[in-house]
Amino acid sequence: MEFWIVGQLVIDIVLLFLFVYLVRTIKHRSSGNIRSSGNISDKTVDRLREVMEPVLRDAEKVAKEFESQLKTKQRTIRKLNEYLDDRTISLNLLLNRAELYIEEFQEKDKKTASKLHVVDQQKEIIALAQKGLDSEKIARQLSISVGEVELVLDLKKKFSKMGDL
User: Fold this and answer.
1) Under 8 Å CB-to-CB from 143, ≥6 apart: which residues?
2) In angstroms, rounded to a whole number, what is the distance separating the alpha carbons of residues 64 and 72?
3) What is residue 100's three-state secondary structure?
4) What is the Cα–Cα distance from 137 to 149, expressed in whole angstroms?
């Protein structure tokens, strides 16, 4: 955005210097065309007007276009800032929820781990399986992995088969 402002200022300054240079040049060249009353001749004024009018019209068009583009970019930036603010708020809320779930899981995991010793945990797995719970429900209830539950149940089956022999 600052680039456009600086660019516009440079263009304005260049146009101003060109205008001053043109006026001085015309004045200097037409010093013989000055009437007795001290005014510049009509021909010189018309020539100056012919030269400067297109330049001034173009400068005005460029200035209006620049202003329009600047306003469009400002609206776009405002919309982007609002969108980013909304996304930041959403992300913060999600992050807070995730932190709460992590804390809750860690507390539950600590309680379960301290409650059950390995042997007690194996007995609890077998008891829950006998009640008809599947491996996933047992794992969720005891806060352990499904693989660990399946391992205990498989070992129980193998030991039961060995006992039947």
Assistant:
1) 105, 108, 109, 112, 113
2) 12
3) helix
4) 10
3-state helix, strand, coil in the chain (%, to 5): 90, 0, 10
Angle (CA) 120-126-132 rounded to 5° is 140
Gap between the Cα atoms of 81 and 100, Å rounded: 29
Residue 143 falls in which region: left (phi positive, over 0), alpha (psi -120 to 50) or beta: left
Query: Which DSSP state fits 31?
Result: G
Domain layout of the chain by residue ranges? 2-104, 116-164
30 with 42: CB under 8 angstroms? no
Q: Is the dihedral of CA 118, 120, 121, 126 positive or negative?
A: positive
Distance, CA of 141 to CA of 7 (rounded, Å): 68
pTM above 0.85, yes or no: no
What is the mean pLDDT of each successive set of 10 residues along the chain, which is 165 residues long?
Answer: 75 83 77 52 79 82 87 92 89 87 78 65 89 91 89 86 66
The C-alpha atoms of residue 87 and residue 149 are separated, in whole angstroms, by 41
